[in-house]
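I'm curious: can you give me some protein's one-letter sequence along with its backbone structure tokens because I've never seen that pairing?
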Amino acid sequence: MPPSDASRLDAWLAYLEQVHPVGIDLGLDRVAEVARRMGVLQTRPAGCVITVAGTNGKGSTVAMLEAVARAHGVTTAAYTSPHLLRYNERLRLNGSEADDATLMAGFEAVEAARLDGEPVSLTYFEAGTLAALWAIGRQRPDVAILEVGLGGRLDAVNVIDTDVGVVTTIARDHAAFLGDDLEGIGREKAGILRAGRPAVLGSRALPASVRDGAVALGAPVVALGEAFDWHRAVPGRWEWNGLGRDGACLSLTDLPDPGLPLDNAATALQALASAGIALETTACRHALSAVQLPGRMQWLGPWCLDVGHNPHAAAYLAGQLSVRPSRGRTWVLLGMLGDKDADGVIAALNRVADGWVAVSLDGERARSAEDLAARIEAQGGHVAYRGESPEAGARWLAERLGPDDRVLACGSFLTVAAILTWKQAQMA
């Protein structure tokens, strides 16, 4: 039964959190059954579907796919997860967040379908994904860009056949569900690919299992460093070379740095080219100069906010800070969940951190500031403060920052969301 107050989005979200016994339950049988009842599988939700999987870089790739497509006059829908501040962030229709009414109509359609006959249990993410697909289908955009939530093969997003499959990076994360074997993780990510549809591989260091999966399916491989690539022409500008859907060589020059990983920017351009969009230099320049993605190398004064929560992402952050030297101290405010590789993240960031602030997060998967501090100190880091929350750590730091100091706040979406909310309150 729907929530008692079905006219409020927060009531729907609270209801969806309660109707399935576990938060993550990989598998497509339940999702596919409800999708069939809803009619989602019978009609394509968009003219073209681009599905993005990977450990890191999915969010930035989706953001650039959306921005560049829209700059070419292409209508879009983009589905991502998780959100930072509002659930509405997860679904964007033609560049705008879906309103409450659109989301609730989708939830109503999902609830009606899952109870139509033998009841089907759905997780929060599965219900949200089906509601988004239903809403996208009502809009019927030219391109739907779908970000895989976890893994690939068994993720709810994979209920829809993709026209262009994108794999960004492969690293260890979500070990409880995906394991620690990179080849095995690669096989799971490759599960989003489809026979005869381009497989855009957006990392130079993917496990062999990803390409092997594409070849076994008969999905044409379009790989970074082979079919497409990028290089810097001058500081702040770069060039891209790739292939059109017909195999023609393409080139774009004098592109602005979007402030996001250029591997992901190049991958987004190639995915759109593989989808048959004729890339135009001026439109690409405009889109890349304006693209924004909260919580990914997002600078608010001396504060850099990034949702990176695994060693691969932390190594990227450390590299970015290294090439952006500071005359003052670099502080790292770290808050992480208990099922993440905190030791690996700390090791990656230790080379750029002059001081640490460890903070606790709430929830059943939370990790305490004391646990983080012990791990930081075991690696020789100096922990200046242990905060009961990200906000507490931020307040402590704000009172002590020197004029040339900077802060990297990272480790979890929860950490960044808390700091963003705190910063917004300061600026209000």
In short: The radius of gyration is 21 Å. The first helix runs from residue 9 to 18. Residues 51 and 146 are 5 Å apart (CA to CA). The chain is about 40% helix and 20% strand.
